[in-house]
Amino acid sequence: MSQHVVIIGGVALGPKAACRLKRVQPDARVTMIDSQKIISYGGCGIPYLVSGDVSDPDQLRTTNFHALRDEAFFRQAKGVDVLSETTVLKIDRARKKVLVQEKGQKPREIGYDKLVLATGSRPRPLPIPGTDLPGCLAVGSMEDALTIREMVTTGKVSRAVIVGAGFIGLEMAEALTDMWGIETSVIEVADQVLPGVVSRTLASMAQKHLADNDVSLHLAEMVTAIEGEGKVERVITTKRTLEADLVILAAGVLPNAELARDAGLSVSSSTGAILVNKTMQTSDPDIYSGGDCVAIENLITGKPAMFPLGSMANRQGRVIGTNLAGGRATFPGAVGSLSIKLFDAGIAGTGLTLKRAQAEGFDAISAQVIQFDHAHFYPEKTLITLELVVEKGTRRVLGIQGMSKNLEGVAGRINAVAAILKYKPTIEDISNLELAYSPPFAAAMDVLNVVANVADNILAGRNTPITPDEFARMWAGRKDDNFIVLDCRDRDNAIKFLEKHPDFWMNITGETIQEHVDELPKDKKIVLMCNTGARSYEAQVKLTKAGLNDTVNLQGGWGNLRQWGLDPTTED
Question: Residue ranges of the Rhodanese domain (predicted)?
Answer without folding.
Answer: 479-570
